[in-house]
Amino acid sequence: MLRKGVDxxxxxxxxxxxxxxxxxxxxAANAEDGYDLWLRYRPLAPTAQRQLQADITGIxxxxxxxxxxxxxxxxxxxxIGGLSGKTPPRTQALRDGSLVIGTAxxxxxxxxxxLPLKDLGDEGYLLRSVxxxxxxxTVVAANSDRGVLYGSFALLAQLQGGGRIDTLDISSAPRVxxxxxxxxxxxxxxxxxxxxxxxxxxxxxxxxxxDPRYRDYARANASLGINATVVNNVNAVAVILRPDYxxxxxxxxDVFRPYGIRLFLAVRFSSPLELGGLKxxxxxxxxxxxxxxxxxxxxxxxxxxxxxxxxxxxSEGQPGPADYGRTHADGANTLADALRPHxxxxxxxxxxxxxxxxxDRAMQAYQxxxxxxxxxxxxxxxxxxxxxxxxxxxxxxxxxFGAMPKTALGMEFQITKEYLGFSTHLAYLGTLYEEVLRADxxxxxxxxxxxxxxxxxxxxxxxxxMAGVANTGRDRNWSGSQFDQANWYAFGRLxxxxxxxxxxxxxxxxxxxxxxxxxxxxxxxxxxxxxxxxVVNYMTPLGLAHLMATGHHYGPGPWVxxxxxxEWNPVYYHRADANGIGFDRTATGSNALSQYxxxxxxxxxxxxxxxxxxxxxxHHVSWDHRLSSGRTLWEELAYRxxxxxxxxxxxxxxxxxLAGRVDTERHAEIAAMLGVQLREARWWRDASLxxxxxxxxxxxxxxxxxxxxxxxxxxxxxxxxxPGR
Length: 725
Prior knowledge:
The protein is an alpha/beta fold. It has helices spanning 2-29, 46-55, 67-84, 108-113, 145-160, 212-224, 243-256, 271-274, 286-302, 328-339, 361-369, 430-437, 450-454, 485-496, 502-514, 518-539, 570-574, 598-605, 615-618, 633-656, 664-696, 711-715, and strands at residues 58-60, 90-91, 98-103, 125-132, 135-142, 169-172, 178-182, 228-230, 262-266, 308-311, 345-349, 380-385, 409-414, 465-469, 580-581, 621-622. It folds into three domains: 46-172, Chitobiase/beta-hexosaminidase domain 2-like (Chitobiase, domain 2), CATH 3.30.379; 178-294 and 306-336 and 356-514, Glycosidases (TIM Barrel, Alpha-Beta Barrel), CATH 3.20.20; 537-583 and 620-715, Alpha-glucuronidase, C-terminal domain (Alpha-d-glucuronidase, C-terminal Domain, Alpha-Beta Complex), CATH 3.90.1330.10. An eight-stranded parallel β-barrel has the order 7-8-9-10-11-12-13-14. α9 (286-302) packs across α10 (328-339), α12 runs antiparallel to α15 and α16 (518-539) runs antiparallel to α20. The longest helix has 33 residues, at 664-696.
């Protein structure tokens, strides 16, 4: 009996261990690690599942779907199946609860409805609930299969977010033609300014091996309406144009095509010399022009829908037309001429400045490019960063947006957070994008916002474009942290509609990513909406800029003054001395304000009228100057640093309260990241205040704690292996 009892207990223990292992395996299989992004398609509550099964009983589409339509059908099956627990069948006969997708040309049921599709263009879509012969029908209609794909994703987002479809009446069309990501990925797998692991693209195994993740990348972009991607670094190498690499690029293009994404390449301006064996890369040399035409023909023979070239020239050591005494227009137009027969586009970056130019760096792009207005070919887009320096936590809008009415100007935002704490600091950039897009250039009078410049609504000629420097990598969660996914999402939404509101976008992302509970969404959005301002305050308050340590841009370095080029030194930008701090860009200083329209210049010319957020960008101000806040500049600066740290502590506390309302895995990951951010925010505050004290000679105001370490301690910190170098 004893032996038998022992055996039974042993069996019971084994059974319990097996059940525990099974539960753990199931838990791991269902774990939330962020891979699914905002396309989670988790099962709805049982009542909602039954309702969705009744609302969508089958899918009606053309019997000969294109690759784009196949993508739409596959996504609908995946999404509706995941949400409702039952994948709706494909049918040809209309019945109650049919979901009909297609164009009027391909789908008779849609043609019969005579829907208002005319104004939706090539990529817009319409979602509508209708009744036809007594049947309830849901329609996803468009003028093209690409529009149907975008509409299918929009319908799934509506279902995910808990929206009803029995009263659907939504139409949407993009306001920008090229909505693209710029990847700063190198061919060796490293990503410049990348904080989410190695490059997505395994160039060594391409073209033979295409990772399934490439398709999921394309799906995610298509869900936002992103229709183009540049797969390699703007600091390009000529090798990317070799025949063996064109074959690799073709393999990627083949994966992207069914999701409506055109592939572009960043090219090195000196490629004819380095790759073609020519004696120069002079854009006006007939042999050089012929080389670019032949290379374009070669690429399009392999990739018929190839998008075109992105070029960084005569900037930070990159070769360009100025090497031969030519203009940026000469260089861009030579490449545009090669692409024109194929419908290709040149994106020419306006990020240009020279170590030989002693003028304010913030003015140099305007000085080099303003005089070329109207001289660029019709298939050239001048791609302009949002601000005149370099993706800082806050900058005024770039003056070129109000200065080149005869040139197609595209926006370049940064999604990867090179100067905003990498992937470990929570900083929702939707507010940054919105701030820039809503800024008024006054180029055509009041109301000439940057958004209106970018979307072409001011009558500007040429192609409209918005690019975002991507933050993706091989990390399982794609972007290095869960909340950095929101910046990819926000960029895509604003590229589709630059007039959209950052708060609404944040709410949509939170709803799709964490769940539909209204209180949960509100709490998450509250954290997101104050996050970027917190970063501004503990890094670059009151309009300061470029205070990051040089090279890696990780951590504070306002004291750095030993770089070979003056504009690579933080002291160049803050100009702090015993009397005050800030860069005088008024008529008494560099006069950068003269590059803006008169109403903009007038607003910022007077330090008393300049918003505090931009004060030290435009003015050198005495430490003891009394501000509108009632504090002296020194006091306000110290309080802003302190406020940034307190905001992060508040974000951390608010996130902690969401335990149990957010899945354990992602809640723990974000909590850990916020711990890093709080520690580093304190470091930023303490190191910066220690330095400003050494310059100003002033004591810290009441309530602001003394730095934890000496200034020499902070100055001695080294980070030779910081990511993204």
